[in-house]
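lol ok so funny story. i was supposed to be doing the assay writeup but got distracted and ended up predicting the structure for this chain instead. priorities right. anyway since i did it might as well share w the group, maybe its usefull for someone
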Amino acid sequence: MSTDTDDTDADASNDSGGHCSTPDSDGEVAEDIAIVAFERKMDTAEEIVDGIGDRYESIEILEYHGDVFAEHWGEYDCFVGLMASGIAMRKTAPLLDDKWDDPAIVVVDEELTWAIPITGGHHGANQVADDLASMGAVPAMTTASEAADEQGVEKQAKALDAHVVNGDSTVATNLAVLDGELGPVERLDGPKAVLVGDDVTVLKRNGDGGVVLGTGSVSGAKSKQFLAAWEEALDEVGRDWDDVEFVATGTRKENEDGLLEAAAEKDLGVIALGKGDLEEYEGPTPSRSKELIGWPGIAEASAIAAGREHDLLLEKISHDDAVTVAVGR
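and the output, tada:
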C-alpha cells in the first residue's frame, strides 16, 4: 500500500538523534527466578508463578528456612522474597559481595500490594518488580533513573533486546542520563574493532535476531489500531510475536500513547530514531512527508535502520488510514 499515514501530521522540528525506550549482573535480563516463601504463603507463591512465570526461562519456589538464601546463592538471577523486607535483608546482607555478580533481590507482601527491589535494581530486580505490577503490586523503585522517570542504559538495552557488556560503565552513563547529557545510542556495524573509555557503555544484541516493526501513525491512533497493523504485517511475513525484537519509530512519534500502550501490551521495547538516522535508510515507498516537511517515511526507514541487517522484509502497509508498519530485519 502507498498510504502515507506516518508522514502527514507531525512537527518536523524535532530532528535529534535516536534514543531508546533490566538486566542481571552479566547484562542479561533476569531469566532464572526463585520465589522464597514460608509454607503458609505457598498459595501466593503459586499465584505469582501462574501470573508471570511465562516471562522467564525458569521460575521455582523454595520453602523458606534460615539458610535458604545461602544454600542457593548464585543459582538464580533474582530471588523474590515473599516475606518482610527485614528478613530478606538480614539473611542476604552477609552474602553480598559485588553488585555485578550478586543476584537481584525483590520482596513482595502476601497481598501483592508492594514489590520492592532491595538489591540489583538495574540487574533484574526492577524488571521483576515491573512484572509483578501486572498482578497489581506497586513497584517501589528507588534507583535514581527510575525515581527521576528516566530510562537508564539498562532499560535502553532491554528495549533493544540487547545486554550491557561492560557493567562498570553504567555508573557514569546513568549519571549522564539523569543530567540529560547521554545523547542517543550510537550504532556501529561491523566487522570493526572499537576502543572505548570507562564511561562508555557497550550494548550487544541478544540472540540470533528477529524482526523489527517499523511504525508510523496519525496523531491519536489507538492501541488497538497499532496491534491490528502489527498483526497484519507479521502475518504477511509469516512471523509471530515471539519473532519481534522491538518496535522502531521516529522521534516525532515517540510519545504516541497508542503506540506505547500497544507495545507495553506485547512487552515490546520502543526505540525512536532521529531524522538523520532515517534519512540514511530511506525506504522504497514514496513519502508525502518528504515533500511537505523533509522527513522520510517513518515506517520503512525505521524498520531498515533498526534491523540488524538493514534489510526490509515487508514494505509499508496501512491500517485504518491511521497506522503504517513495515517489517525489517
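The chain has three domains: 5-21+207-328, 32-145, 150-205. Residues 150-205 form one domain.
back to the writeup now i swear
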